[in-house]
Amino acid sequence: MPKENYNPRIEIHPILNFEKKKLVKFYFEGKEYYGYEDEPIACALIANGIKVFHITKEKKRKRGFFCAIGRCSSCLMKVDGKKNVMVCITRLKEGMKIERQ
Amino acid sequence: MKGNDIERKITIIGAGPAGLKAAITIADLGGEVLLVDENPYVGGQLVKQTHKFFGSKELYCGLRGFEIAKIFEEEIKKRSNIELFLNACAVGLYLENNKKIVALVKNEKLMKITTDVLIIATGAYENFLLFENNDLPGVYGAGAVQTLVNQYGVRPGKSCLMVGSGNIGLIVAYQLLQADIEVKAVIEILPKVTGWYVHYAKLKRCGVPILTSHTILKAIGKDEVEGAVICKVNRNLKPIKGTEKRLKVDFICLAVGLTPFTDLLWQINAKLLYIPELGGFVPYYDENYETSIPGIFVCGDVSGIEEASTAMIEGEIAGISAYEKIYGKRKETEALKEKKKKELFALRKGPHSKKILIGLKKLKNGY
User: Into which CATH architecture does domain B128-254 fall?
Assistant: First the structure.
């Protein structure tokens, strides 16, 4: 069933209409990506195929998105130089610099 | 921080179905109320729900969750005696004489709300599950998957393993199909599906395998989920050796229940009781939805995991009680409260409410 040209962005849906918002540029680990303004940063990352949000200090375990409501702390990242930002509830803005902390 | 200190009569934390209904009820009785929520929108989890609701017309039957959230948004706007703070997260709660003090972070600034009466309608958070590699990126909560897919139109992956066959597991699995995502299987550790038949039948018709007496042993993958190992369980819910099966999926969705979000209640040393039927630790409350701390009320999932429809009625009852505490009882308020209690009772008559009723009985006797 999954399409060959897999697109993480849903274009056609039987119930929902996803309004196209303003496309903005952001940086992840120095590389350029695009996402929609004011969507959670986590959504923009996943839509760009980025699932590993940080790597734990001691055991080097990969961590990603989990709860989406700012509860679980699995998605902490460095945003514009500020550490421990919960990217699941922080909105994407033009030119944001997002890094694994 | 003086400029940021405010005083209010009634404050509600959480603008989900329960908190919204409480605010509207208070406003319609003629009271003034402050409603705060950490999100930039009202509606709580309604905004990500695309299935149609059941119940009565008063409870918005036939409408989808996100449509109900829109109606609420309009209803709140219409009432000038409801003050709404969005992007405002309650991070602390303190008691001072008879007043309640809420520490609120609004637009990254700390502010202090002193309130006479407080309604806590903070909802719940998702349960996690113990299995090997459960921290691998691609293991997501069911609510989080709904946020991605239904609220922002982003697919978490191409192919999913759904863990849990309660209503959330069944509904979200169906919503994944609607978003053109494959559901490899829905697994359930118990010998039978725990959600409603209507949701189960929809999935069955689409040919999704629903495997009861099955559990997940581990997630497979180097950097992110590439598969999962599932197996059968025996009558004691223990894995049966030799029944392991490998599934190729790129994300695993956990729909294994919710836990009431009671942090603020712990902070003020409110009486909490451990009641598994209600989702874990829940605050004790009386027939007016007042907790062990006078002037602090609860409603919705924070008082026990149930449905949006019951949360709304609980919100109305808590709202009436909070109003009475400040503005006094009237014949009208007492009659309305009785009516709402009857509606709630009627809503809990079905077989699916059995567990809740057992939990509520324990709550009543546990104090």
Answer: 3-Layer(bba) Sandwich (3.50)
Cβ contact B180–A3 (<8 Å)? yes
Contacts of B364 (CB under 8 A, 6+ apart): none
- Topology of B2-125+258-365 in CATH? FAD/NAD(P)-binding domain (3.50.50)
Q: Does A33 touch chain B (CB under 8 A)?
A: no
The residues with which B252 forms a beta bridge, in sequence order, are: B139, B161
Asked if B96 is an interface residue toward chain A (Cβ–Cβ < 8 A), one would say: no
Say if B202 is an interface residue toward chain A (CB within 8 Å).
no
Q: For residues B160 and B321, what is the distance between their CA atoms, to the nearest angstrom?
A: 45
**Mean local confidence (pLDDT), B220-235:** 97
Does the beta carbon of A5 lie under 8 angstroms from any beta carbon of chain B?
Answer: no
Residues B72-106 have pLDDT tens digits of 999 999 999 999 999 999 999 999 989 999 999 99
Percentage of chain B lying above the pLDDT 70 cut = 99
ipTM exceeds 0.85, yes or no: yes
Whether residue B144 and residue A88 make contact (CB cut-off 8 A), yes or no, is: yes
Whole-prediction pTM value?
0.94
Interstrand relation of A54-55 and B251-254 (parallel, antiparallel or unpaired): unpaired
Domain definitions of chain A by residue range:
23-99
DSSP-based three-state secondary structure for B121 = coil
Q: Which two tokens stand for residue B277?
A: 């039927």
Question: Which CATH number fits the domain A23-99, given the four candidates 3.30.70.260, 2.30.30.90, 3.10.20.440, 3.40.50.700?
Answer: 3.10.20.440
Q: What is the pLDDT of residues B230-282, one digit of tens each?
A: 999 999 999 999 999 999 999 999 999 999 999 999 999 999 999 999 999 99
Domain ranges of chain B: 2-125+258-365, 128-254
**Closest CA relative to residue B326, chosen from B116, B120, B11:** B116
pLDDT band at B55 (very low <50, low <70, confident <90, very high): confident
Q: Using CA atoms, how far apart are residues A53 and A63, in angstroms rounded to an integer?
A: 6
Chain A positions touching B224 (Cβ under 8 A) are: 51-52, 62, 64
In three-state secondary structure terms, B21 is: helix
Closest CA in chain B for residue A47: B154
Residue A47 touches partner B, C-beta closer than 8 Å = yes
- CB of B225 closer than 8 Å to CB of B138: yes
